[in-house]
Amino acid sequence: MYLYIVISALYRLSCGALIIAVNWLMVINSPSLGWLATTVALTFIPAMIVPLLWKNRAQKLSGRRLTQYSLLAAGVIAILMFLTDKQYYLLGLNTVIWFFFFVMESSWESWFASECRALSDKEIERFSSVTMSANQAALMTGPVIAAYIFENRPGMVICTSAILYFFCFIAAGLSGPGKPAASDAEGNKPQSDEKLQQLNLSGTEIALLLVWPTLAMFNFMLPAQVASANGNMTEVGLLDALMGIGMILSGFVVAHTAVNNIISKYKLNLVFLLAAILLWGFGGSLAFRLLSVLLLGLSFNNQRIVIRGRLAKKYQPEAVGRIISAANSFSFILISLSLLAFHNKVAVNWIIPFVFSIIMSLIIPLGWQRNGTNSSETSINERGS
Prior knowledge:
The chain has 385 residues and is an all-alpha fold. It is built from 16 helices and no strands. The protein is globular and about 55 Å long. It starts with a helix and ends with a helix. The relative contact order is 0.16.
């Protein structure tokens, strides 16, 4: 599990740096935000293809092995992105590399679920929090490196990301095969045959549809808002970093049961998000916007950790991969509609990721019980007995 945490964190670091570099290139090398909106929209077309791949690979490749091959492909494509000087080629290559990113969105989670097979529920929650915190720390560090170390040299950022993908590819090969499911003599570890293979719908699965739209609209609105205010890549990196710090803090929140229970009981995620909207919309200064994205990161990632832990408890690893890839596929529709409606409306497009995160906070509790079943199903079973 610990090698998994390190490799996945390095992968996220390189992704964070590459995304900000490509988006900034699209902003500074084009006369309008149309190129950036097209880039963001096209990155999610591969999400519609991945579910077909995942369905066919279920009996052939483990989540770890599929992650390893995708890392190799991402490294090769990133090198080609570094070598090209044509915006059309960069747009096409960026779309292709996102195909492998979406493959890994499912394969990383399938790999994680495999690592969790022999763990108790508390251990799953702890490792879910640790991995998410490490990943978000890496995502935060990536834009900071891109903005401050490489300054306005996005090409070097892309090259460095390629090197990191190759390193992660090699490291993943050293991790060995995933552990088989194991039973626990003390009876406090989940048995794999108790977990589901098919979708069992609740608010958790529905909220999963909004994870990528929230991130996509944030990645779009950040450079769009900064560019409209005559800012620079450093300011984009700083705001992205504060979003990442908020996500890291959410990991510590989830790790402390008492604090997490208070947040859940009093719906503080919703309060934080409403405060974040007010800070961005009416604050005006960079300091207020930094605090705003910090609260967004805290609330949004808290919800992501909850979703991830519930999926790992509820489903078999192969089912987790299928569900996530299908959710990513449906996300493309919502992202495309959002970009079509708001890409040129600088005055309001900043609010979309906040709204998506608010909706997530409202629907995640629906239909969930501690045992992972739907409340509606429980009621039916009780009436039947």
